[in-house]
Amino acid sequence: MVLFNVQKPSPNKKQTKFCSQLFQFVLTTMKRHSRSGSVGRVPESDLEKSHVRETNVKKGKRYTIKEYLIDYTANSNLHGLRYIGEKERSPVEKFFWLFMFICCVVLCAGLIRKVYIKWNESPVIVSFAENSTPVWQIPYPAVTVCFETKSLQTRFNFTKYYHLYMNNDTFMRLTEEERNMYEDTTLVCDDHLAPAKGRKFSDGNATVENLRQVSPNISEFFFGCKWKDVPKDNCMDLFSPILTEDGFCYTFNTMGAEELFRMENLHKEYKYLNTINSSQSWSLEDGYPPSTPLETYPHRGSGYGAKAGLTFLLQTNEIDLDYLCRGPVQGFKILLHNPAELPRLSQQYFRSPLSQEVVVAVRPKMMTTSDGLKPYHPLVRQCYFPSERYLRYYKVYTQANCEIECLTNFTYVRCGCVHFGMPHGPDMKICNAGSVACIKKAQMELVTVDIQSRLDKELDQNDTLGESRAVASQCKCLPACTSIEYEAETSQADFDWKALYTAYNITIGEDIVDKKYSRVMIFFKEAQFITSRRSELYGQTDFLANCGGLLGLFMGFSILSVAEIIYFLTLRIVCILWRKRNSKKIQDNYPDQFSSPKPSKFKH
Predict the structure, then answer these.
(1) Cα 128 from chain centroid?
(2) Could you list the residue ranges that cross the membrane (predicted)?
(3) Lower CB count within 10 Å: N or C terminus of the chain?
């Protein structure tokens, strides 16, 4: 009988403590790999191999990164990654899932790019408001009226002086005052009548005063006025004189000069607007406050129809008509505009012919903008809020005011002067007849689409073009985010006042036999109108929701996936390094326990 005698080492306290720490270490390692159970049950042999890998220091840098990536793919909640990291999968399966995952990532990135382009380039949508707006919530349109005859023939015969001025023999016999009067009058006539040999510059106050002398005053201009079917004793209660590019005109319901202009930046030679009324509570951005009474200024519409609007009767004498300054068409030019704008009758208007009645049905067009668009750049939303664009000569920003100021600056750079009807600073000169061709050219250059290319070609020929190009590039007169426009639907018929006199058996006196009359009626067509509104087509929340939907559809990606990636790149690495450090300390403290086991001694 053979006896085997195995020598067993006697346990001591140090070994007992080591075994306890080693047991805790193994339990920690098993817990770390417990999540892989969702992929597949880990065999006990794998745990033993993991223990050996932890205890035997074999991990190089490359090996550690590989194991780390496998750990991430095995525990990630992104679709398909777990099949790539599983060791039980064949290379063909891993390649298939890697290919599918890359395809989903590429396709998802392409769709997100399209969503971003749409969100970035067209985030604004213009739609109709849900509810209609009553007309009493907006101001009645400002009405500006100009006479086509700029110089009454009984005061200054423009046709006569045209021939005298153009004839070299009679030109020398004209006095300086007559030459200046003719040249000043040509500023409000057709452009081709302005003599190129005339003065290039003039005193602005003298030019305006000459035009005032030859223009009809308000009593010669209006025969009678009614507001909301109530006759006025004097039309001065409703209309005020205003200086425009067309000379002296008369305006109704326009804001006062103190509310419209920055008086500190304007020149002091003459005034553009003389009105006794001033805005009491209305602003373009906020409208009328709820507590505003019905009778206020600017006037507000109280209803629709002819009896709720403005009616006025215009008059002139046939002897005062001039057919050279403005051509063969006589009558009156009328413009409906925002009360906060300076009218430009050279751009748009409708005409009231002589001996005609014109009925004007007004349809407001109002555009508002949601506050959600304020963070966007003005070029993206295509409008300016009041605090975003400063005008030097106007307190209220509108597209029309911006265009006038831009034209003023551009004309001054190109011609060295400005038209008397353009609001300007105290240091700017006033153009006269000799500069009309330059003014006309500047207006065409400013509105021409290819202005930049033309300026580049001529840059070496004229030094002012470089500066004018800079002025033109700074215009960018976008609409105001809150804007009001008025569309006019006109109809007209003969106004035979002599037949009316005959019907009432009223004798027509010699003093009125050559009178010409025109009647104009302006009113709101409907009691309500539909407002347009700019709003967000794709907000930040919508963009995030679209991107999240695509990521979830293709990859199962969510916010927690981001947290998981951050975890594996930060906290997970720190924990692994900390564990490896502790493992190294154990190995350093108990080197004998991690050495290879020696064979036991047997006794036979």
Answers:
(1) 18
(2) 95-112, 550-578
(3) N
Q: What is the DSSP string of 324-386?
A: SSS-S--EEEEEEE-TTS---TTT--EEEETTEEEEEEEEEEEEEE-GGGTTS-HHHHT-B-T
Neighbouring CB atoms inside 10 A of 450's CB total 8
The DSSP output letter for 516 is: E
Q: Are 478 and 399 in contact (CB under 8 A)?
A: yes
Helix 13-32 and helix 571-589, axial crossing angle in degrees, nearest 10 = 160
- What confidence tens digit (pLDDT) does each residue in 37-94 have? 444 444 444 444 444 444 444 445 555 777 777 777 777 777 777 777 777 788 888 8
Lowest mean pLDDT among 46-55, 315-324, 384-393: 46-55
The DSSP H or E segment spanning 127 is: strand 124-128
Rounded distance between C-alpha atoms, residue 187 and residue 74, angstroms: 85
Decide if pLDDT at 495 tops 70: yes
Query: H helices then E strands: how many in the chain?
Result: 20, 17
Distance (Å, whole) CA 412 – CA 428: 7
Per-residue exposure over 557-586, b if at least 16 CB sit within 10 Å of its own CB, e if not: beeebeebeeebeeebeeeeeeeeeebeeb
Considering 121-125, 482-486, 580-584, 591-595, the range whose residues carry the highest mean pLDDT is 482-486
User: Which tokens belong to 102?
Assistant: 């890359």
253, 275 Cβ separation under 8 angstroms: no
Residue position matching structure tokens 């963070």 = 375
Q: d(Cα 12, Cα 22) in Å, to the nearest integer?
A: 16
Query: What's the half-sphere exposure (Cβ side, CA atoms, 13 Å) at 83?
Result: 14
Closest CA to 367 of 357, 378, 382, 356: 382
Burial of 556 (0-12, 13-18, 19+ CB in 10 A): middle
Amino acid at 66: K
- pLDDT at residue 344 above 80? yes
Cis? peptide before 134, omega within 30° of 0: no
Shortest CA distance to 354 belongs to which of 83, 502, 148, 159? 148
pLDDT of residue 212: 94
Looking at 22-26, 141-145, 312-316, which range is the least confident one?
22-26
pTM > 0.90: no
Count of CB atoms situated within 10 Å of the CB of 161: 20
Nearest alpha carbon to residue 456 among 441, 442, 468, 438: 468
Q: What is the DSSP letter of 254?
A: P
For 225: left if phi > 0, alpha if psi spans -120 to 50, otherwise beta; the answer is beta
The two structure tokens encoding residue 417: 């002067």
Q: Region 271-298: what's the mean pLDDT?
A: 85
pLDDT of 274: 85
